[in-house]
Design a protein that fits this description.
The chain has 80 residues and is mainly alpha-helical. It is 52% helix and 0% strand. The protein has helices spanning 3-18, 38-52, 68-78. α1 packs across α2. The chain is globular.
Length: 80
């Protein structure tokens, strides 16, 4: 499964389900400007853990990503 495709799909699905207006998802998009709130991010992370089988935020040595590209990168790195 392509990680980037799955992350994009989950962002779009959660935004639609929660009635949020999602910004265009570019690598340099600041997550706080994505249109999702903290509940939406929690839903996305739980769903990605289920679909991808990884939790990149369970490690103590990882800081939370600031941009959408960094968010995808966290999952790509964790899946290795």
């Amino acid at each position: 499964m392509d990680i980037e495709t799955e992350v994009i799909a989950q962002f779009r699905q959660v935004a639609a389900e929660q009635g949020m207006q999602l910004a265009p998802l570019t690598n340099d998009l600041a997550l706080f400007e994505s249109g999702l709130d903290s509940l939406c991010f929690a839903i996305v992370v739980v769903r990605l853990e289920s679909s991808l089988g990884v939790d990149p935020f369970g490690s103590d040595d990882l800081s939370f990503p600031v941009t959408f590209g960094e968010f995808i990168g966290c999952y790509q790195h964790a899946a290795k």
